[in-house]
Design goal:
It contains eight helices and 23 strands. A seven-stranded antiparallel beta sheet has the order 1-23-9-10-13-12-11. Strands 17-18-19-22-21-20 form a six-stranded antiparallel beta barrel. The protein is of the alpha+beta class. α1 packs parallel to α8. The termini are far apart.
């Protein structure tokens, strides 16, 4: 009976993810914009980094005199420096210097040593600029023997390598459930891009190899496009060509749920400490903070490097979804640990690198004199039939109630399982509440542009 109950709980959890999808929303497209400005071919990959002063100073002073930069709680750039002369230059530039013991050269050398050690699936490391350390994490799948060996490597590097065990497992956020399907499973669309001739969707590379066919429905009747070029492992991105060749109206918009979208106006590399938002087809809109950069994750399927580490949550099916801030594209959801009930760590593929390697440009909103930044627009879609892949569509309360009533029908569950069904109701309600809290945070943060 215990094993049967576990199977039912797993089934209920998967169905709850579908409930989260109905209440959340995903990404790209023509279903979320109502008479938006005509999209334009935007900046390619050489955009000015977010929080430019800190990044500019690090670049100018060099890797031997600095150890990264971040944004403090007041929004002021902070630069880690290794000598007093560099500190004075940072102050003159209007940023705050912080003296540290280890330079960027030291931190990078440590990660090279870690990469040269035998690979251990379930481990990850990243550069934590604020603590001037390299943080190495091991999930619950890492054996005591492997962790001990990796700890030995860290000890030989030096005391600035911090070892941490984490709950859960580091996994790619792919799910074989519905409704956005490739030949490998369900993912989320990220951003629309173009090569000047055809339009494409950016998504995660682990979602499927080159040649994977994508559909907008679970029966394979509405084909969206085909994956042409991608990279995984190593990187984690894929380029999906629209079958029609065009992304269509609203190509510059990503959905954030509730029939709302954020107009994308540019792209950049993120800063540690920067507040960011992420949208995905399972868990909808979520907020968090960039916690580290240049992260390496040893997924079971392979190792991915150069990722953005954040404390925002994600769940299976969110892979490939967009990370952005203030209407600026930053990353594509790769993987992580945890979920959107307990929280977790999520890693993102930087968009700037993807555009550089693929030779495509981001489709952004045309500048119309109203200023840059996000301009959420109501959805023009009135139902699932009109939804394009990854878009958010209005879902009535009756639809969700119908789903829950079917799950709690005694004819559909065995005796004694109604309690589990009740737990499902609570789980779906909790996820909805959390999603609503994040949407409210977004509205508050961008109150001037929320439509």
């Amino acid at each position: 009976m215990r094993h049967a109950r576990r199977r039912v709980v797993r089934r209920v959890t998967r169905l709850a993810a579908v409930g989260g999808l109905l209440l959340g929303g995903a990404m790209v497209t023509r279903a979320v914009a109502s008479e938006p400005p005509v999209p334009s071919i935007g900046v390619p990959y050489a955009a000015k980094p977010a929080g430019g002063t800190g990044s500019d100073l690090v670049s100018r002073l060099g890797a031997s005199r600095t150890a990264g930069s971040w944004v403090d709680a007041a929004g002021r750039p902070v630069v880690a420096v290794t000598d007093e002369k560099a500190a004075a230059e940072v102050e003159r530039a209007g940023a705050r210097p912080e003296m540290v013991s280890h330079s960027m050269q030291d931190l990078k050398a440590a990660t090279r040593t870690l990469r040269s050690a035998p690979r251990v699936a379930g481990t990850a490391w990243a550069l934590d600029y604020r603590s001037n350390q390299v943080v190495v994490r091991g999930d619950s799948t890492v054996s005591a023997a492997d962790w001990s060996r990796l700890t030995g490597v860290a000890e030989r590097i030096g005391g600035f390598v911090r070892m941490e065990r984490t709950e859960g497992t580091f996994t790619t956020r792919l799910n074989g459930a519905q409704p956005i399907l490739s030949t490998a499973g369900r993912c989320s669309a990220g951003f629309n891009v173009t090569d000047g001739t055809s339009d494409y969707i950016l998504t995660a590379g682990h979602c499927g190899p080159d040649g994977s066919v994508w559909f907008a429905d679970d029966r394979g009747r509405r084909q969206v496009g085909t994956s042409l070029r991608g990279s995984f492992p190593g990187d984690d991105y894929s380029l999906v060509k629209y079958d029609s060749g065009r992304a269509g109206q609203g190509a510059d918009v990503v959905s954030v749920g509730n029939g709302k979208g954020v107009r994308i106006t540019g792209l950049a590399d993120p800063q540690v400490g920067q507040r960011i938002f992420r949208s995905g087809s399972t868990s909808g809109l979520r907020q968090g903070e960039v916690t580290a950069l240049d992260a390496t994750v040893n997924y079971p399927e392979g190792t991915v490097t150069g990722l953005i580490e954040t404390d925002v949550c994600a769940e299976p099916g969110d892979s490939g979804g967009p990370m952005f801030a203030d209407g600026v594209a930053l990353g594509l959801t790769s993987g992580g640990s945890g979920d959107c009930v307990a929280g977790g760590t999520t890693f993102f593929q930087p968009v700037t690198k993807v555009l550089s390697e693929l030779g495509v440009k981001l489709i952004v909103a045309a500048q119309d004199g109203a200023g840059s930044g996000p301009a959420p627009a109501p959805s023009a879609s009135q139902g699932a039939a009109a939804a394009s892949p990854g878009s958010s569509v209005p879902v009535s309360g009756a639809d969700v109630s119908s789903l829950l009533s079917r799950l709690t029908d005694p004819r559909n569950v065995g005796p004694g399982l109604l309690v589990i069904a009740g737990s499902l109701v609570a789980l779906v309600a909790t996820r909805w509440i959390r999603a609503e809290q994040d949407r409210k945070a977004y509205r508050q943060y961008y109150s001037a542009t929320w439509g």
